[in-house]
Amino acid sequence: MNEQNFGQIEMPPRDDSFVRLYQNMKSELENVLVKMKEIFEERKHDEEVALLAENDDLLCQREDNDGDITPRHVHLSLNNDPQSMVFAWITFGNLPPSSIPIVKYGKDNNNLENTVTGSYSIFIYNGVIRYMYRATATNLEYNTRYYYTVGSEGNFSKIFTFKTFPQDLGIVNDVSMIPLRTAGLRGDFDMIIHVGDLAYDLHTNNGALGDQYMELMEPLISSMPYMVIAGNHEYDWKAKNFENYERRFYMPKNGDGKNQYYSFGVGPIQFIGVSTEFYGFFYDFGIQPVLDQASWLEKELQKANQNRNNKPWVMTYQHRPFYCSNENSMECDAFENLVIRTGYLNMPGLEPLYGKYGVDINWSGHEHSYERMFPVFDRQLYNQDSDPYHNAKATTYIITGSAGCHSYQAKFGNPSPFSAKRLNKYGYTVMHIKNMTHLYFEQIDTQATETNTVVDSWWMSKDLDYVINDENILQFLDL
């Protein structure tokens, strides 16, 4: 073949089979990565449960309480009405047909003059029957102490007490019960927000561990609202659901109705609970829960911004963090973190919404450590001012995952430019609402020899009409 003939050879038409092959390989690789993540999570879960099983005083068989209608697991929660309180409890036996669940309450413990009727549902898990009750008192007075008892005629609980309008909030993850319970009963805070991983795990031993957790927490959570959001340990790997979490608690019903996402207000703050577990377990649930939450969240943030005159602070809380500097890079700077923060393919991330609507603070856990970030958006620091927490230019992220559990304290990797303070001591965070424009935060060390040892403290403040709307963020979001 001479040069002239070579130049005249016609090339065959382009075949896109290589494109299809690439796309198929890409899809297969994504499936493998998802499966590897699932195996990793299962092994991690099994190891943690095995560690817990070594501690016999935490993993004990529930007594045979069949037929027992004694009220147990009494706890409180808020809904989207600031002048109401939700009461919840369970029994292991069914009430007689003539009995109805009720709450008696009043401002005098010798005269519980008010009564509200409750509703109930039956929760059957691995053959164990639990009867779940709830009732709601409305038109409560602000800053007032109330006394109450729950149950049915002839089978009431002891008298509990609570005070309306929380001023100091304890925010925790992976609870160390004794220090937290002691501090709460001492009056160090008036409400708890628990950002996931409640009991390691609620469903363990046919739910017996969840029962014991609620028994141990009852002295505290019967005296103040206990607001929860799901973490990965609320997921039942065998049943492939969050049923033990969804059935034991009653969060506001203005979200998905199953405690996965919702909102409520306290004083000058609008709180929005968000599920990161729809991302973590999307291979079980698909993309639709992520899409539904994103649509709801945008509308909720729009409403929150329209109400900034009454509630100038908007805070979100979730289990898995966007930013962290722990040694476990998979959770701090890899696929899992990136998907939740920015999204993946048709799956929307959460950070663009936080930036678009000027979320002031985001709380998370998951990492067994405490870390306070400078204001940050899309991995860009906004701490140039002498006081970066006054009229902050971006969302401030706080990881409060060190309240303590059966597992371990996380190790830190290389310092992150986003990190203002990080500690791997067991503890919890308390937020003090000082007024409409000033908040004060303390990280409490639960391992210290002295009680109330503060290992980090800081102020956050804003002008009354200030909302985060930095030009760089808006430009990034193409707004």
UniProtKB/TrEMBL annotation:
Its EC number is 3.1.3.2. This is Purple acid phosphatase. It catalyses: a phosphate monoester + H2O = an alcohol + phosphate. GO terms for molecular function: acid phosphatase activity; metal ion binding. InterPro entries: Calcineurin-like_PHP, Metallo-depent_PP-like, MPP_PAP, PAPs_C, PAPs_N, Purple_acid_Pase-like_N. The keyword Signal applies. Belongs to the metallophosphoesterase superfamily. Purple acid phosphatase family. Residues 394-457 form the Purple acid phosphatase C-terminal domain. It is an enzyme of class 3 (hydrolase). SUPFAM superfamilies: Metallo-dependent phosphatases, Purple acid phosphatase, N-terminal domain. Residues 71-164 form the Purple acid phosphatase N-terminal domain. It comes from the Eukaryota. Keywords: Glycoprotein, Hydrolase, Signal. Residues 187-370 form the Calcineurin-like phosphoesterase domain. The keyword Transmembrane does not apply.
